Recover the amino acids of this structure.
């Protein structure tokens, strides 16, 4: 069926892409992975189907993630992936959609321009950018227009964004390239060191999701994982515990907590008092890591709350911003040839 226009919000993440269509809500959630035939340069699979191919493809097929550390690492493939997801989300329409895309708070002007151009080439009539902490705050139900401090810790696949928000803008923020992907790599390194076993990207992610821990559990949990023995080259199966996961994830978790400390130190006293009363809001897939909220509370003395449906917070916030397109139109800054929301 052919509609008039469906304005959309896109959470263009390192690990996954979520698309919010105005009036419908989140209509698509797929891993940001594509599988390509090297010989013909043709897309063989996108999203979940492509993710299943990671580490399992023959020589003529490559499965890859075109986003790295929250920004575009392969422009051409990102554009084609976006085109596919936009078409899948809105179908055929008479007019091209207006698109709002979220970006990490620490991206450069060049990286922002790449996102704008990729989105426009993928079929948007006009693209606006909104910073991830702002979108995450909106999506978690916070009224960001109030003169009151709110602290957001958004842990995605490629970046962790920590920001203090007041009066609709970011007062203090810091973005680090330590998040879900870095946690997966830390798990792989730990398994290699302790068990002399090599595991794949998907196996490390499954371990993180099932028994990954930042804080000691009341009852220790175990999960069987299979990989390749580095000494014999043969398949090997070992039992990994939640205590192993605490040790494996110690470094990336510590970096995230240190970033929270740095942002708190730079926060004006009045806003710091607000945050102390209201607590810190955790969003993003990393918010689901067991015990991370307890550990941050223990280290900072500030209560930590996990947002409802933290994985989709940024996408929901980006989608809600579609209701404010008239503000985007009237309150924009011309910068480097494109338009972005002040935030």
């Amino acid at each position: 069926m052919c509609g008039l226009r469906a304005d959309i919000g896109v959470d263009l993440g390192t690990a996954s892409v979520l698309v919010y269509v105005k009036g419908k809500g989140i209509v698509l959630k797929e891993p940001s992975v594509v599988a390509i035939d090297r010989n013909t340069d043709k897309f063989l699979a996108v999203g979940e189907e492509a993710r299943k191919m990671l580490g399992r493809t023959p020589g003529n097929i490559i499965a890859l993630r075109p986003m790295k550390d929250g920004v575009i690492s392969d422009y051409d493939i990102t554009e084609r992936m976006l085109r596919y997801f936009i078409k899948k989300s809105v179908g055929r329409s008479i007019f091209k959609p207006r698109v709002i895309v979220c970006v990490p708070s620490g991206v450069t002007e060049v990286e922002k321009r790449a996102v704008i151009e990729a989105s426009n080439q993928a079929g948007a009539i006009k693209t606006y950018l909104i910073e991830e902490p702002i979108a995450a705050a909106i999506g978690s139900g916070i009224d960001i227009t109030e003169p009151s401090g709110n602290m957001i810790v958004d842990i995605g696949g490629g970046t962790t964004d920590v920001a203090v928000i007041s009066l609709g803008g970011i007062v203090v923020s810091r973005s680090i390239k330590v998040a879900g992907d870095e946690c997966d790599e830390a798990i792989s390194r730990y398994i290699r060191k302790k068990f002399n076993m090599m595991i794949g990207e998907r196996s490390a992610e499954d371990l993180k999701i099932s028994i990954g821990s930042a804080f000691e559990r009341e009852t220790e949990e175990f999960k069987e994982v299979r990989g390749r023995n580095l000494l014999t080259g043969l398949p090997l199966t070992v039992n990994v515990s939640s205590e192993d996961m605490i040790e494996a994830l110690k470094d990336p978790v510590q970096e995230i907590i240190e970033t929270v400390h740095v942002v708190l130190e730079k926060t004006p006293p009045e806003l710091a008092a607000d945050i102390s009363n209201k607590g810190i809001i955790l969003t993003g897939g990393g918010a689901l890591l067991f015990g991370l909220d307890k550990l941050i509370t223990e280290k900072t003395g500030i209560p930590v709350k996990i947002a409802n449906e933290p994985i989709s917070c940024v996408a929901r916030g980006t989608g809600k911003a579609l209701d404010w397109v008239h503000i985007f139109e009237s309150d924009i800054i011309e910068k480097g040839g494109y338009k972005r929301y002040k935030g």
